[in-house]
Amino acid sequence: MYVQFEANENQYQSISICDINGRVLISQSCVQNCEIDTHTLTNGIYFVNLFIDEKLVSTKKLVIIK
To answer: Which residue, 40, 49, 63, 65, is most buried by CB atoms nearer than 10 A?
Structure first.
């Protein structure tokens, strides 16, 4: 499974996936389109944070059940 985001042209963005304790488990930076492979995550609840130009613009809950 992948988490994928698309941004406007030439926007620097960063995605992080945190556990419920706030620990960053996966983090990736890119320009325009981002895709993160989540196959290494175990069952549980996570939070996906999207930063554009170093500002938090969105947080979504991610539930993994395998």
So the answer is: 49
In this structure, what token pair is assigned to residue 40?
């290494």
Contact 18, 56 (CB under 8 A): no
In this prediction the pTM is 0.81
Q: What is the CATH number of the domain that holds 34?
A: 2.60.40.1220
Pairing assessment for the beta strands 2-6 and 33-37 based on DSSP bridges: antiparallel
User: What is the pLDDT, as a whole number, of residue 59?
Assistant: 95
Summarize pLDDT for 39-50 with one digit per residue, the tens. 899 999 999 998
The DSSP letter of residue 41 is P
What total of structural domains would you count in the chain? Answer: 1
